[in-house]
Design a protein that fits this description.
This protein has 468 residues and is mostly helical. It has a single domain, classed as MFS general substrate transporter like domains (Growth Hormone, Chain: A, Up-down Bundle), CATH 1.20.1250.20. It contains 18 helices and four strands. A hairpin with a 4-residue loop joins strand 2 and strand 3. The longest helix has 40 residues. It is globular, with a radius of gyration of 22 Å.
Length: 468
């Protein structure tokens, strides 16, 4: 379908492929672009949120498995929490490049709809305590695909907005999408305590510790109709952008770009921490403080909520004062917060201090969210500045081509860096399962120190090669 450049909103109707897209043209943006971009953003957000729900459903599910008769060890429960991180990160790599090939509107609809399958599988498996561990591992792996939606979603939304609003737009999409972590950790524990879905959801299991009925399957089945609805909304209301279309042969250039690897390192520190802490915190609370009366399901969801909200703030603040500065602040804040957490953990005969531990983690989530927003603002700025400098003095056609190339590369780097960072979902719970929690946290503090130096050297110091 060919779109005219007249500015008529009829040519940018929902469900169409848009060939003429000029967000940096102020007249175009105010008359047509803003409305279309916002429509795509506000469909993308809940679709992405549901992807995070599916990805993180195991972080809250494992907390109740032992109570209803599943005989899995502490280590096995941590692995069920960690495994979705492997598939989530791996499929993010694929989703980074496949969305621009097939069109992000179509791919958003497809990638949302297929998440119905793992939710149905999980719901049925949770009704039978004889379900073998290997099957639970497979379900956890398939649920991980929900996390892959982030890569294609973030790469897509960046194309719709002008440079001055990219930080805020990516912060909103990613931040509100990240709220899926808090949503599932808040809602799932509530719906499993009653037959809210009625007879079709199946019979309950018995919580032998509290002597109550529990419908664990509700925490999975609840999301099925919502996934179907959002897939339909994405198909009928979003748009494919011709400017965002690119074969893999063009996108793979990012693997030769130094700043792809540098920004991936930094994003591992911000988003990798956010998603890994979100996955591991419920079991950390249960293992260290439940004996003192603190319930994981009561407290765990608040940390990811704080981090998700601060993602938007990080993007907005970076638009105002620069992403590199905000990113550096985030690493300092996370390191300091984890030192506080370490001092509050039980040690020897000391039972630890839950509130110091918990507030320390909330602060860590706060700064991880801030850094999530700032790093994703840095990426388009770095690549835009690089390509426009290369095209300086070569005429308007060269400048236009440079802008298009920078948008394509920034989108691919956004997706790829998010893919690698998603492995934090696996490695952080895996470290908690196999090493002392205190030792693991000190490793994270040391890693943040390297991120701080890298960000300062490449992006924040005077004379940095790519100020952002």
């Amino acid at each position: 379908m060919t779109i005219q450049s007249s500015g008529s909103t009829d040519t940018y109707r929902p469900g169409s492929t848009i060939e003429d897209w000029r967000p940096e043209d102020e007249k175009f943006w105010e008359s047509v672009g803003r409305k279309v971009a916002n429509r795509n953003l506000w469909v993308s957000v809940p679709a992405l949120m549901l992807g995070f729900v599916v990805w993180q459903v195991w972080s809250v599910t494992v907390v109740r498995l032992g109570d209803v008769g599943f005989g899995f060890s502490k280590s096995q429960l941590f692995w069920l929490t960690a495994i979705p991180g492997i598939t989530g990160g791996t499929f993010r790599i694929l989703y980074t490049f496949i969305g621009p090939i097939f069109g992000e509107r179509k791919f958003t609809a497809f990638s949302t709809l297929i998440l119905v399958a793992p939710m149905l599988w999980l719901g049925f498996a949770l009704q039978d305590t004889s379900t073998p561990y290997w099957e639970m591992v497979l379900i956890a792996a398939v649920c991980g695909i929900g996390g892959a939606n982030f890569a294609s979603s973030m790469a897509n939304i960046g194309f719709f907005f002008p440079k001055r609003e990219k930080g805020s737009a990516n912060g909103l999409n990613g931040g509100l999408g990240n709220l899926g972590v808090s949503v599932v950790q808040l809602v799932a524990p509530l719906v499993v305590t009653a037959a809210v879905l009625g007879a079709p959801a199946g019979d309950p299991l018995r919580d032998t510790k509290k002597n109550t009925d529990v419908w664990l399957q509700n925490g999975a089945f609840l999301w099925v109709p919502l996934l179907v609805i959002m897939a339909l909304l994405a198909w009928f209301l979003m748009n494919d952008l011709k400017v965002a279309a690119a074969p893999f042969s063009e996108q793979k250039i990012i693997f030769k770009r130094k700043h792809n690897w540098v920004m991936t390192w930094l994003y591992v520190g911000t988003f990798g921490s956010f998603i890994g802490f979100a996955a591991g915190l419920p079991l950390l609370i249960k293992d260290n403080f439940q004996s003192q009366g603190y319930q994981a399901t009561t407290y765990a969801w608040i940390g990811p909520f704080v981090g998700a909200v601060m993602r938007w703030a990080g993007g907005w603040l970076s638009d105002k004062i620069g992403g590199a500065r905000v990113t550096m602040v985030s690493f300092v804040g996370m390191a300091a917060a984890l030192v506080v957490v370490i001092t509050a953990l039980p040690s020897g005969g000391d039972g630890g201090n839950f509130w110091t531990f918990y507030i320390g983690f909330l602060v860590a989530f706060f700064f991880s969210g801030l850094g999530n927003g700032s790093t994703f603002r840095q990426i388009p700025v770095i690549f835009r500045d690089h390509h426009t400098k290369m095209a300086a003095g070569k005429g308007p056609e060269a400048q236009a081509a440079a802008l298009k190339q920078s948008e394509m590369e920034a989108g691919a780097v956004t997706g790829f860096s998010s893919a690698i960072a998603a492995y934090g979902f696996f490695f952080i719970p895996a470290m908690f399962a196999n090493f002392a929690v205190t030792s693991s946290l000190w490793c994270f503090v040391a890693f943040y120190a390297t991120c701080l130096v890298v960000c300062w050297w490449f992006y924040a110091r005077k004379g940095a090669e790519a100020p952002s």
